[in-house]
Specification:
The protein is of the alpha+beta class. It is built from 7 helices and 21 strands. The two termini are 36 Å apart.
Length: 315
Amino acid sequence: MKFVTFRDPKGRPTPGVVVDGNSAVLDLLAASGGQITTVLQVVEGGPAMLDKVRDLAANPGAEHIVALDGLRLEAPLRPVQLRSFSVYALHLERSFRAVAKHHWSKLKSLLFKVAIKIPPKQFFERPVYYKGTVTNIAGPHDDIIRPPYGERLDYELELAVIIGKKGKSIAPADAEEHVFGYLVYNDVSAREQLFDEVGPMSAGPAKGKDFDNSNIIGPWLVTSDEVPDPMNLKARVRVNGEVRGESSTSMMSHSIAEIIAYTSTGETLYPGEMIATGAMPYCCGIEDWKFLNDGDEVRLEIDGIGQMTNRVVPG
C-alpha cells in the first residue's frame, strides 16, 4: 500500500491510501468515520491497523474516493525521530575529491591526498549517522527555500526507512520485520555552511542541514511488502528536466538490516522513526560541483518508491 497525506477541500491535512491502480486516493479520515486521523497513527497501529485499512480499501464508498491527479500531497507523515546515515563510500570519495579540487588550497589538497584515505577504514566498520530535526519536514510539492547562508545549495537523493515495530538490539536477520515502509528523501544541504561546520572540532552537521523545508519526503509511504528488494533500487536526479545523476541502493557499504541493528543497539526504536540511508553516489550536486539556482526544479526518483519535484525559491 501507498499512504499519503493530502489537503481536503477545506485545506485540512488528511490521511489517505492510494487505490485504483495509483489513480485515486481513499480518504481514510472519512472512510473510517473519523477514527484514522494521520498516517503516523496507521504506522503506530501495527498489523491490526493495516488490516483495517485493507478492509476499507477493498470496499470503499464512492463518496470517499478522490482523484489523485491534482491533489496537493503533503509530507506523508511527520516522523517522530530522524537519523541520517552515510553508507555510500563512493559518495564520500567523489565529494571529498570535488572539495579538494574546487574549495581547498593546492597545499591543503596535496596534504589531504597524501595523508588521508577517504573513506577511512572506520567507515566500513560501522555505519555513521547524525540526528536531524523533524520540525522542518516538507512534502513532495513544497518549495526548497534557500537559507540566508545557502550560496551553494544542494540536493541529496536518499532512500528513507520508516520503522513500524518497536524493538531493541535488533539482530540483522530480524530487521526487516521492523520496517513499515520506504520514502524518497531529499536531504537539502547548504554546502558553504557545512564546510565550516564539519571538522575536527565539530559535533556534526548543524545549520548546513537544519533550515526550513530542508528535509523533503514523499511522495508517499510505500509499505515494505511492495518493496521486495530495497537493496537493489535504481534512482536518478533531474534538474530542470536534465538528468544530473543515476545510482542504485545496491552501492551501500552497510545494508539496511545492518543500519537498523546498529541503531537499535542498547536503544529502543519506535514506530514512526525515520532512518535515512545517505546520499547516493552521483545523486548530489557537490560531487560534480553543480549547485542549485533559484527557480530550478529538482526531481528525485527511486524506482518502486516514487518521485517528487520541488522548486528552489529565495528565502
